[in-house]
Every structure is written in structure tokens, then in C-alpha cells.
Amino acid sequence: MPTETTHPLLKLSPVLAGCVLLAGSVAAAQGLDRIYRCGNEYTNNPSQSQLKGCVALQGGNVTVVQGGRPPAKTSQTKSGGVGAAPESTQSRVDPSQQKSRDSDARAILSAELKRAESQLADAQLAYGSGQPALRPGETPGSAAHAQRVAELKANVARAEADVVGIRRELQRLGVDAPASAGPVVGSANPAVVAR
Questions:
Q1: Alpha-carbon torsion, ordered 33, 36, 40, 41, to 10 deg
Q2: pLDDT band at 19 (very low <50, low <70, confident <90, very high)
Q3: Cα gap 63→107, rounded to integer Å
Q4: Which of 82, 104, 128, 145 is placed for a possible disulfide with 132 were both Cys, Cβ 3.0 to 4.6 Å?
Q5: Burial tier of 132 (Cβ tally within 10 Å: 0-12, 13-18, 19+)
Q6: Please, what is the end-to-end C-alpha distance for the chain in angstroms?
Q7: Under DSSP, is residue 8 helix (H, G, I), strand (E, B) or coil?
Q8: How far from the centroid of its chain's Cα atoms is residue 27's Cα?
């Protein structure tokens, strides 16, 4: 009676057998896809590389990207002259529509200024000129109190910067800050004043 023999790979677990087969196929593929450098050119054709005297590369993969030339740009005026700025493809905005947009921007910025000034007043009140009210369990020299004072001071500085930025935008649009925007009281930043 003949004895049945099994291949050694079949005795392994299916996962391990798959890994062994995969490793063998990768090793075989690496041997076939060797890259050769021929001056500024690369090839994976061994017979062509022998004819040209190419050098086999060691290490990782090589990626060569062919570059293209950018299209030539020439600026021309209506008369066909070269060197003038290109004509805008966008149409101009109607003056009445632009006035409407500017008016909307002023209204939005004025509302933002009022909100920012309110937030600044709240932040200054909480900061209390550097002496905020103590919370339960806080002492004036504790680390937690010092950290909270620093956060409150940063909030005041941030709110002041918001007010200054909005006022600057309003001035850019040709609008003075509203009369309700008085000087910043107890400001941590002396540069913040009413305009």
C-alpha cells in the first residue's frame, strides 16, 4: 500500500502558509524589477541596460515624473500691444449695488462694535482692575487665583483688540465710531481710546 505524503506547507496553518507564499512572490518580483540608471534615464530592461552600460540601483523604488512646460503667457491690450496688463474678465459692480453693500457692511460693523463693547465691559467688570472677587476656597496669593486673574486679563485684552479692529474697519469705510463708544474705562491697554 502506498503511503500518502503531504507537502510541508500544507502542514502549516493556512495563514502562515499564505505569508510564506507571499514573501516568496515578493522576493521573486523584486529580482525581476531591478532598476538601472543610464545617465539621466532609468530603465528596468536588463538587456537594454547592458547595451548602454547602465548601473544597477540599490535601495528603494525610483519615481520619475515627466515635467511639462508651462504655457507661454503674453499680455496684450485691445490694440494688440504686448506688455500691458490683461483686461479684467469680471464686470464692474453697479454703483447703486455697491452703495447698498457698503451700507450693509456699515450696519453689520456697527452692531458688531456694540456687541464687542458690551463684551469688553463685561470682561473689565470680571477683571476688576486686577483684583477680581475671590471664589470660595481661593486666597489672594494662590496659584489658582493667579491663573484666573491672568485669564481674565487676557479676556480683557482680546475684547479690547476686537473693539479696536472693528473701529478700524468702520474708519476704513469712512464712518466714525458711534457716539455710544466712549473711552475704554480701566483699560489694560492704554492705546485703546475713543475716536
A1: -50
A2: low
A3: 57
A4: 128
A5: middle
A6: 110
A7: helix
A8: 42
Please choose, from the candidates 78, 76, 41, 73, the residue with its C-alpha nearest in 3D space to the C-alpha of residue 57: 41
Task: Give one word for 68, left, alpha or beta, with left for phi > 0 and alpha for psi -120 to 50.
Answer: beta
Rounded percentage of the chain residues whose pLDDT exceeds 70: 63
Q: Is 76 helix (H, G, I), strand (E, B) or coil?
A: strand
CA-based angle 174:179:183, to the nearest 5? Answer: 105
Per-residue pLDDT band for 187 (boundaries 50, 70, 90) equals: very low
pLDDT reported for residue 114: 95
- How far apart CA 144 and CA 21 sit, in angstroms, is 63
User: What grid cell was written down for 46?
Assistant: 536588463
Rounded to two decimals, the pTM is: 0.44
150 Cβ contact partners less than 8 Å away, ≥ 6 residues apart: none
Of the candidates 45, 68, 66, the one whose C-alpha atom is nearest the C-alpha of residue 56 is: 45
Q: Does the CA dihedral 14-20-21-26 come out positive or negative?
A: positive
Amino acid identity, position 134: L
C-alpha cell at 23: 514573501
Quick one: DSSP state of residue 82?
Answer: B
- For the chain, the average pLDDT equals 74
Residue 154's nearest CA partner among 188, 114, 192 is 188
Beta strands in the chain (DSSP E): 36-38, 41-43, 55-56
